[in-house]
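hey can u check if this looks right to u? its 412 residues, i copy pasted from the old doc so theres a chance i mangled smth
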Amino acid sequence: MRAEILSCGTELLLGHITDTNATYLAQSLAAQGIDLYNVSQVGDNQGRVVELLRQAWQRADLIIMTGGLGPTEDDLTRESISELMGEKMTVDPQLEAQLRARFAHIGTMPERNIKQATLIPSAESIPNPVGSAPGWWVEKEGHILVAMPGVPREMYRMWEEEIVPRLAKYTGGLIFTRLLRVYGLGESTVEEILTPLLPSTNPTIATYAKIDAVDVRITAKAERTEDALQLVAEMEEKARDLLGDHVFGIEGDTLASVIGKALQARQQTLGVMESLTGGMLASTITDFQSSSKHFIGGIVTYSTDLKVQMGVPQETVDRYGVVSEETARAMAHAVRERLGTDFGIGVTGVAGPGKQDDKPVGTVHIAIEGPEGIITGKGPGWRGGRADNKRHAVLTALNLLRRYLEGTITPE
């Protein structure tokens, strides 16, 4: 099967966003043994979109489109497919009802959204439970054309849950995938560690850098479900042996959800005192839906004076500086005492853009105090922008707590 990707949106051509969707799809297609021959980007112009679609129709069996499924005038993917096929778009009553029901809780649906409920005779809709725009699956004359939203989280979900299973019958057998989530290593390092496994063609193994982790995708193809599962299980065991405790979960897991489940299983609680992260640590912890069962609260001590008011000894700050391991330790102890929690996390550092107390941007000190003692760590040495430094500090703190809970770090 020969594939082609067409990414739609003038914002791509202007450089306002990066086409991460195409990269993701290319990697996924390779894992499924589908040959990708061309990747194109096109602006919001129906004539140019149709021209590229006609070219793709001549040379590809599978055409994958992303973007252009919104409700506005410049969202022209449906119209372009309609013109390519020579078929008229009409409103599908069931799709319209679903769309109006989606908008019901926030008010009346704008009538321009009705275009998201249209189909052509050759198309069937692809469910999109995380967005308002259904996808299109078109089969005609031996070709398959798939249109998905450009919003990455919507596209990823639609591709994994809806499209990949449908493609299995065209690629020869059942496809099963397991995703391992890795933190504490860069993508290139993960790939290097997995080098002995990379030559495998069934199952395949590939790495993907995400904002909160590196994902390792293991994909197997077989005629029977149990055979695919066995192939993936064998490869997963080898990958876990190589990556060790850097693997923190599987698909759907986050560091926040992993530590949340662990704390709840132990019936233990958590509090945080954070400085450079400005509340982001507490916010990330509460992204886990049942966090109220283990997270008591957080204190954002952005100023030195507030740190002291909340229990950090003045002499510690005076002697070691506000950005120091000793201050992080004092913060972890103070919040644990003040909130009465089993665990306390203290985070201090320099987000940027300038130095603080002669400490370079990206310096991060983390301490976690618990019933068994205290552990400390530093940020990953990241020297990015302010937002990146804060995000990496949060993830590093959560990962340190995970390792504490799993017993892979011995507390003092």
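The mean pLDDT is 93.
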